[in-house]
């Protein structure tokens, strides 16, 4: 029996070595025909895959560090629908890393059956339905002729790839200390992003995230800083260690510099609503926050850089132009805002032609605003299930903030609530919930909050069980003495 067991073991090892040998030969043959740069990328990819396969947590650290810090490898045009101009599909390092991470996670769960593919969470159903609505709407648009080829389905994959972050995080977190380490890594990454963005200010252009290619996306950086800044503020308000909170407030102040120089009006619009959310969550400090807001306003009027104030006032004081401008009362809006409002109006009226499931992804012209785009691409179904998903996210944030006594968890929950409010307003001027570089950190935070709620629930259940056991032991002891 022992000989047979050893024989099986040797056979298994030989098969494994044979597979590895064949794989290495194939990779060597492929790399021999590729330029050295591509060969280097393949080697790095294999190393990342192996590291992630051995430890999903290590892969998550790499992913967090790559958020806004990964290079752009290139983009290509894909033909859109009837009214859609050619769109570019941008591939970045974090996209490739996310694919490697997801593939390694699937292989790991396939080999280790006890890990389970997807851990049950309160958001699984809402995410699944939301993705299904996008697939259904795009398929319907393809059948109706609004979506051409498989373009729409590629965009659906691009839209939902960040959900992989949520599922991997919620499946692989086990302890509070992991959450703490992920938060630290996320804040260090935000600090590095802020340094690189601040270094762009002397150039005089709008600052944007690193590695954005020829055309930067200041709106993306604004949304990212809005979200991470909300978490930093939540932690600074709730943590008890003054030496830590001092550094957090300094980080928040530093992040505010590149935030202002993004000149992103959507981000500016969202900021006061984030501030008001903190005021709502801190009723005992509302008077102090109102006074602080007045001080900030006066300081901003007196000392705000001219580029920032000019950007804000440009909306209302563009000056003479032959292009059409919308007037609201006596206020005349700039041409950019006018074009955006007119595109929203067209989208709202055109969407009536397919109100239930829209025209499908890429089945309508490009819209740089979240809500009209959801409306024309997925109709009422998309709007309803997007709202349902956001409701579930808020519910998790309020549950953690309201129930926990842990300062780290309370700050994380508060940050998620305020950050989500900010992104919802930011989405008035951008496709915020479709921007991977904003959604990756967002769903990382959501995953940590959901798991923190699970830890709190498990701890409460354990405490109740211990109390029941103690009570039962006491009753048994009393009965034993009585019978004696």
Can you offer a commentary on this structure?
This protein is mainly alpha-helical and 484 residues long. It has one domain. Helices cover 72% and strands 4% of the residues. The chain has helices at residues 2-32, 36-54, 56-66, 93-111, 124-144, 151-160, 163-172, 176-198, 218-238, 242-261, 265-281, 286-303, 306-314, 335-350, 370-403, 407-426, 436-483; strands at 72-78, 87-92, 327-328, 331-332. A two-stranded antiparallel sheet has the order 1-2. Strand 3 and strand 4 form a beta hairpin. Helix 9 (218-238) packs antiparallel against helix 10 and helix 15 (370-403) runs antiparallel to helix 16. It is globular and about 90 Å long. The protein starts with a helix and ends with a helix.
Offer a few descriptive terms:
4% strand; two-stranded antiparallel sheet; 484 residues; mainly alpha; 72% helix
Taking the sheet with the most strands, its summary is: 2 strands, antiparallel
Strand order in the largest sheet: 1-2
Give me the strand/helix succession: HHHEEHHHHHHHHHHEEHHHH
Structural class: mainly alpha
Strand residues, percent: under 5%
**End-to-end C-alpha gap:** 57 Å
Count the E strands: 4
Low-confidence stretches: 1-13, 77-86
Average the pLDDT over all residues and give the rounded result. Answer: 82
Share of helical residues: over 70%
The tally of domains stands at: 1
Write down the overall geometry: globular
Radius of gyration: 26 Å
* Number of DSSP helical runs: 17
Q: Could you outline the blueprint of secondary structure elements for this entry?
A:
Elements: H1 2-32, H2 36-54, H3 56-66, E1 72-78, E2 87-92, H4 93-111, H5 124-144, H6 151-160, H7 163-172, H8 176-198, H9 218-238, H10 242-261, H11 265-281, H12 286-303, H13 306-314, E3 327-328, E4 331-332, H14 335-350, H15 370-403, H16 407-426, H17 436-483
């Amino acid at each position: 029996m022992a000989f047979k067991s050893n024989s099986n073991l040797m056979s298994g090892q030989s098969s494994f070595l044979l597979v590895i040998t064949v794989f290495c030969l194939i990779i060597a043959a492929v790399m021999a025909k590729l330029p050295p740069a591509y060969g280097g990328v393949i080697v790095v990819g294999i190393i990342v895959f192996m590291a992630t396969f051995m430890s999903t947590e290590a892969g998550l650290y790499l992913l967090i560090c790559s958020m806004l810090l990964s290079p752009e490898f290139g983009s290509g045009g894909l033909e859109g629908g009837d009214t859609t101009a050619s769109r570019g599909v941008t591939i970045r390092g974090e996209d490739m890393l996310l694919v490697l991470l997801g593939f390694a996670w699937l292989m790991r769960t396939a080999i280790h059956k006890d890990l389970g593919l997807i851990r049950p969470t309160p958001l699984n159903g809402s995410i699944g339905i939301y993705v299904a609505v996008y697939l259904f709407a795009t398929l319907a648009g393809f059948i109706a002729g609004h979506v051409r080829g498989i373009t729409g389905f590629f965009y659906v994959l691009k839209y939902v790839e960040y959900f992989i972050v949520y599922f991997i995080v919620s499946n692989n977190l086990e302890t509070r200390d992991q959450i703490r380490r992920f938060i630290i890594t996320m804040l260090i990454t935000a600090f590095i992003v802020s340094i690189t963005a601040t270094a762009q200010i002397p150039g005089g252009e709008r600052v944007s995230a690193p590695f954005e290619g020829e055309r930067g996306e200041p709106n993306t950086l604004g949304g990212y800083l809005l979200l991470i800044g909300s978490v930093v503020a939540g932690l600074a308000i709730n943590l008890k260690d003054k030496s830590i909170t001092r550094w957090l407030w300094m980080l928040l102040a530093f992040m505010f510099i590149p935030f202002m120089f993004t000149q992103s009006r959507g981000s500016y619009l969202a900021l006061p609503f984030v501030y008001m959310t903190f005021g709502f969550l801190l009723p005992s400090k509302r008077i102090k926050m109102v006074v602080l807001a007045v001080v900030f306003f006066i300081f901003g009027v007196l000392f705000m850089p001219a580029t920032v104030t000019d950007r804000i006032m440009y909306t209302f004081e563009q000056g003479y132009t032959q292009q059409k401008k919308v007037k609201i009362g006596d206020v005349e809006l700039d041409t950019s805002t006018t074009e955006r409002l007119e595109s929203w109006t067209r989208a709202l009226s055109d969407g009536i032609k397919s109100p239930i499931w829209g025209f499908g992804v890429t089945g309508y012209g490009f819209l740089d605003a979240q809500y009209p785009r959801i409306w024309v691409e997925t109709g009422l179904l998309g709007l309803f299930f997007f709202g349902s998903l956001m409701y579930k996210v808020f519910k998790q944030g309020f549950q953690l903030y309201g129930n926990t006594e842990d300062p780290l968890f309370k700050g994380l929950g508060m940050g998620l609530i305020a950050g989500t409010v900010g992104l919802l307003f930011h989405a008035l001027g951008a496709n915020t919930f479709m921007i991977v570089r904003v959604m990756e950190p967002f769903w990382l935070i959501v995953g940590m909050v959901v798991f923190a709620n699970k830890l709190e629930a498990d701890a409460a259940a354990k405490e109740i069980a211990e109390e029941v056991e103690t009570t039962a032991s006491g009753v048994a002891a009393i009965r034993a003495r009585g019978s004696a």
